[in-house]
């Protein structure tokens, strides 16, 4: 496990609701062009976090895992879109590029589950969230900021979740 610093934040969630709430805070910070990479085993809370992200971003659309359709699009009343990609079934980064990733990034925030499957197809600047299953209710989420703009977002999130240090 990496040593925590200004580019990282560890959050221990004790419930589905806590995971959604931290996702809501993150979602409220997102703008078009932002990329959130999610990695972790099945059942570790990735889709639950996306439910919170979508809600905090302003969508009332139902969030489900896009495992079989690959990409879900969530809309806000102002017609902006949030893209939710599940890379689990993709065989290569090239296959991800065929989905028109650049269009998703240009037109809305992009949240990618199983991002490690296609990481070379994604921009190097992003927030990566690693999920670890601790027990039936508890999850360990490690947020890592890659790039100055994401470090600033993570600092805001840290202050919202834990208060100013």
Q: Largest beta sheet: what is the strand line-up?
A: 1-7-6-2-5-4-3
Average pLDDT metric: 90
Task: Give the termini separation.
Answer: 23 Å
* Percent of residues in β-strands: 25-35%
Name the assembly state: single chain
Description of the structure:
By secondary structure, this protein is an alpha/beta fold. It has a single domain (8-162), classed as Rossmann fold, CATH 3.40.50.300. It has helices spanning 16-27, 46-57, 93-97, 101-107, 148-162; strands at 8-13, 35-40, 71-75, 81-86, 110-113, 126-133, 139-146. Strands 1-7-6-2-5-4-3 form a 7-stranded mixed beta sheet. Helix 1 (16-27) crosses helix 2 (46-57). The mean pLDDT is 90.
Give me a quick take on this structure:
This protein has 165 residues and is of the alpha/beta class. The protein contains five helices and seven strands.
What are the SSEs and their pairings?
Blueprint: E1 8-13, H1 16-27, E2 35-40, H2 46-57, E3 71-75, E4 81-86, H3 93-97, H4 101-107, E5 110-113, E6 126-133, E7 139-146, H5 148-162
Parallel strand pairs: 2-5, 2-6, 4-5
Antiparallel strand pairs: 1-7, 3-4, 6-7
From the structure above, extract its key features.
Rossmann fold, 7-stranded mixed sheet, 26% strand, 5 helices, 7 strands, globular, alpha/beta, 165 residues
